Amino acid sequence: MALVEARDLVKRFGSLTAVDGISFAVDRAEVVGFLGPNGAGKSTAMKIISGFLEPSSGQAFIEGYNSHTQPIEARRRLGYLPEGAPAYGDMSVADFLGFIAAMHGMSKRQANDRLAELVERIGLAEVWNQRIEALSKGFKRRVGIAQALVHDPDVLILDEPTDGLDPNQKHDMRELIRLIAARKAIVISTHILEEVEAVCTRAIIIAKGRMLADATPAELLAQGANAFAITIVTVDPQRAIEIISTQPGISKVYVAERVDGVTRLLVHAPQSRPTVAELAGVLGRSDIAVSEMFVKHASLDDVFRQITNGAEN
Amino acid sequence: MRPTLLVFRREFAAYFATPVAAVFLIVFLALAAGLTFFMSGFFDRGQADLSSFFFWHPWLFLVLMPAIAMRLWAEERRNGTVELLMTLPVQPWQIVLGKWLAAWAFAALALALTTPLWITVNVLGSPDNGVILASYVGSWLMAGAFLALAAAISALTKSQVLAFIGATAVSFLFVMAGFDLVLGAVRSWAPTVIVDAVRSMSFLGHFQRITEGVLDLPSIIFFVTFIAFCLWLNVRAIEVKKAA
Questions:
Q1: Residue B68 CA from chain centroid, whole number
Q2: Number of domains in chain A
């Protein structure tokens, strides 16, 4: 059984459809990244799965419990970091986490043991007795994560866990997620693509409420068109373009840059054919001097733009 | 019951996390004393009772109780903590009850701080302490009704100011329900049954019956029922917001 399951979730706010038919499942040891432009419906989808919002139609399950009709059972098994990592600013870190632990039904002793462990792991010792409103953004976010982990849930739903953190803190947060990932099913939302490559085993791309892709980061990268960047020394780049574009497998050739008789071409080859060697051979036989040539791999950024721009149009 | 108690403790402590609680208590005591001594001429009346003190309670509470309750939900909505709270494995009514109890306990504290007045009348004369006790209980119950109403309205908005204004406006209708201001508007179109029903909703009327003598049972039942109904509305408001 999948630990998290969304079945055809739809959420309408008046005439706006914020979430439009999202379905997916997450198993143990999976870290799924929710990717999408701002306003794509990532947070809304997470609010529905966590049971904070009711779906207009569809169902969400946490370990088989419907998060709408069996909310208590579902929430016992869920650690949730809402958007913006809200916390009671007037409480100290210790009081706040103690409150959350108690609300999860933990005894004082259980809570103290667990919190002692979390303090170390999340690095909250130095702010333990400070009021939350006085903390830096990084610490606030860590308090939010600690709050989600207090009862050691099997399912974690984290809405932008690294938003507003500096690069070191981001790194630490990803380390933490990787560390706990093996025993849990984790869903994180982000618009930072490197994060997906760094921690996620799977990425779900959402735009305008719709799911546009559900694949591993490697599979997504493979969807991106590879390109060759070729620098040639020639007085007649037009002839080079004609020669290259007649090769099988080439979809597009254009001049990227042209300085002092040196022309840089960009060649799109969606199937990664022909190879660099083949292309070099063709150009060599036509007496075109190639001074530099390399394969430019698609980045997740490119793929993301390709996929989400398609949805905008 | 444990979640209710936890929410109660957190909310009650939250009142004292800022100077707001102290300011509120001072304003309440200053207004109560000022109105009792200067507006009602407590000493000139030459009677050892607290009727001139309790007389002002509905009017004081009309403004002060919404001020206590306005933050209960609106603040949670503004800060986003409502999302945290409502995704914990507890029933919504447990949270609603805990929050209201915290506000009610705070009102009890405010009332308790007026007991020097009670001591004063006992020093100056021999008042009917049964009536005074009944009046305190009645006042506290009425405060609970104002608070439950204001808490339910607070659940509808992110803005504490709106919650305050809305709660004061609706409370005003309930205070005035026995007067022609409200009854006149109803009488023009509604049958007598409805007019009587509206009149029976009057906070002022019920409170006066309690302060006049012994604890008037129908009035106590009215306030308790009113509180229960508003708490139910509060739970509903949260659930409706969830589906919206």
A1: 9
A2: 2
For residue A134, give both structure tokens: 């006085």
**ipTM of predicted complex:** 0.89
CB proximity list for B94: less than 8 A, separation 6 or greater: B1, B3, B4, B7
pTM of the model: 0.86
**Searching chain A, which residue's CA lies closest to the CA of residue B91?**
A72
> Whole-angstrom Cα distance, residue B150 to residue B65?
7
Residue A75 distance to chain B (closest CA, Å): 5
- Is there a single domain that holds both residue A126 and residue A30? yes
A24 Cα to chain B: minimum distance (Å): 21
Q: Is residue A105 less than 8 Å (CB to CB) from chain B?
A: yes
CA distance B162 to chain A (A): 22
Residues A198 and A253 reside in one and the same domain? no
Tens-level pLDDT at each residue, chain B (244 residues):
799 999 999 999 999 988 888 999 999 999 988 888 877 777 777 676 788 888 899 999 999 999 999 999 999 999 999 999 999 999 999 999 999 999 999 999 999 999 998 998 888 888 888 888 989 999 999 999 999 999 999 999 999 999 999 999 999 999 988 887 788 888 888 888 888 888 888 888 888 888 887 678 889 999 999 999 999 999 999 988 887 7
Q: Which of A221, A245, A273 is a domain's end point?
A: A221
Task: Mark whether A19 and A165 lie in a shared domain.
Answer: yes
Same domain, A233 and A212: no
For residue A133, the chain B residues in CB contact (below 8 A) are none
Contact B80 A84 (CB under 8 A): yes
Indicate which of B4, B20, B78, B84 best probes the interface with A, i.e. most A CBs within 10 Å of its own CB: B84
- Indicate the SS3 state at residue A286: coil
What HEC string does B199-235 produce?
Answer: HCCCHHHHHHHHHHCCCCHHHHHHHHHHHHHHHHHHH
Residue A214 sits in the same domain as residue A239: no
